[in-house]
Design goal:
Chain lengths: 109, 115
């Protein structure tokens, strides 16, 4: 079993819809949680970084962490075609980053 | 805005040939990482440097892969000989330090195709 599980999708939504992404993990040592966005043929770029249970909001993006359930989520409100990308969850306990497989999202205009 | 630079962006080679990838981290970043990302999967760490020293190379196939960061700045990842299964995106990332709270910034990657 992988340390980080993420449904690869793909996920297709109409413009303006809410995109909901999630990951589960098994390593209780993970304390820091991130979401990266990766456009086709590009490197991942950091979207959100959280280190405590609860919600963190940044513009149209909300990251949610539930350490008791070992479950993290990313919500994208008012989705735009420019949000079409692969979204990777990532987490770490000390220095080593463990990634999910990524969920490919397409926002249809 | 400072970025991690990588070259080449694309590399096509035949199996058994040698290939090399170069990475220049963000200026001042002491920690440098090389990842491999197979299509449809998340990146997996191959090697981590702190300045010029290797901190973690536990997932680096040392029989064919080597990495160096001689002056603690830029870095080279080499594969010799390349195998079909090495086809992947090779990503370089850097962070200010190696603390848990430090953000890793990724370069654009080198896409390797082994024929």
């Amino acid at each position: 079993q992988k340390e980080v599980e993420q449904d690869p999708g793909p996920l297709s939504v109409p413009e303006g819809a809410i995109v909901s992404l999630n990951c589960t993990y098994s390593n209780s040592a993970f304390q820091y949680f991130m979401w990266y966005r990766q456009y086709s043929r590009k490197g991942p770029e950091l979207l959100m970084y959280t280190y405590s249970s609860g919600n963190k909001e940044d513009g149209r993006f909300t990251a949610q962490v539930d350490k008791s359930s070992k479950y993290i989520s990313l919500f994208i409100r008012d989705s735009q075609p420019s949000d079409s990308a692969t979204y990777l969850c990532a987490m770490k306990g000390d220095y080593k980053l463990s990634f999910g497989a990524g969920t490919t999202v397409t926002v249809r205009a | 805005e400072a970025e991690v630079a990588q070259s080449p962006r694309y590399k096509i080679t035949e199996k058994s040939q040698a290939v090399a990838f170069w990475c220049d981290p963000i200026s001042g970043h002491a920690t440098l990482y090389w990842y491999r990302q197979i299509l449809g999967q998340g990146p997996e760490l191959l090697v981590q440097f702190q300045d010029e020293s290797v901190v973690d190379d536990s997932q680096l196939p040392k029989d064919r892969f080597s990495a160096e960061r001689l002056k603690g700045v830029d870095s080279t990842l080499k594969i010799q000989p390349a195998e079909l299964g090495d086809s992947a995106m090779y990503l370089c990332a850097s962070s200010l330090r190696s603390f848990s709270t430090d953000t890793q910034y990724f370069g654009p990657g080198t896409r390797l195709t082994v024929l």
